[in-house]
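Input record, target 12 of the design panel.
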């Protein structure tokens, strides 16, 4: 009997974080800084892959093993001007937004054993993130972590195009954020349901 590949753990996933334009050094000067972003991305990958993997079970015995390996995500922390340019070029919207997710196209043929599943890129705009956090009365790090989780789930195919999909995505986000010790961003301090600024980012285009 051949050994079955073991599923990737949270620690196996590769998270590549780069800082571009904007004073991210000052924004992330206080702990946990970049560690919180990496942890948020890893937890979001684990939670999202657990859901998508369970939905795929039994669909194809040949394809089942390909999703067992680690995933890889790149995160670019940049400024509003850079995100505005991307938003204009890829979505036709000449304005900045909080987070953009660019999912890579599926590569032809099966992945080699042990090769990571490269999901794509997430881009976060500093000034928009800071403004939204201030307006919502939330710590900057909490809002940033939420945007990263939101972006990762988009790369995994989750969306909020209708109420059912939005509820599903939001429940995953809040579960991940709870593990990070971050309060539910979709509820106001009074306990009444609120609207998260992360939910305003649309389903992003794929890289060509």
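The sequence produced for target 12 reads:
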């Amino acid at each position: 009997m051949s050994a079955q590949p073991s599923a990737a753990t949270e620690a196996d996933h590769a998270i590549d974080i780069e800082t571009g334009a904007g004073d991210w050094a000052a924004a992330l000067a206080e702990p946990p800084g970049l560690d919180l972003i990496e942890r948020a991305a890893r937890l979001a990958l684990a939670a999202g892959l657990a859901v998508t993997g369970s939905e795929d079970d039994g669909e194809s015995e040949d394809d089942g093993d390909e999703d067992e390996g680690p995933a890889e995500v790149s995160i670019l922390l940049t400024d509003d001007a850079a995100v505005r340019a991307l938003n204009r070029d890829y979505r036709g919207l000449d304005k900045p937004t909080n987070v953009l997710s660019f999912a890579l196209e599926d590569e032809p043929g099966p992945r080699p054993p042990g090769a990571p599943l490269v999901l794509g890129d997430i881009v976060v705009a500093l000034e928009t993130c800071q403004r939204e956090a201030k307006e919502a009365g939330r710590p900057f790090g909490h809002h940033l972590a939420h945007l990263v989780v939101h972006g990762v789930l988009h790369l995994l195919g989750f969306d909020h195009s209708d109420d059912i999909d939005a509820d599903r995505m939001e429940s995953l986000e809040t579960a991940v954020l709870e593990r990070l010790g971050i309060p539910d961003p979709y509820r106001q301090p009074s306990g009444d349901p609120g609207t998260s600024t992360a939910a305003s980012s649309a389903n992003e285009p794929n890289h060509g």
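The domain at 11-54+64-200 is CATH 3.40.390.30 (Collagenase (Catalytic Domain)).
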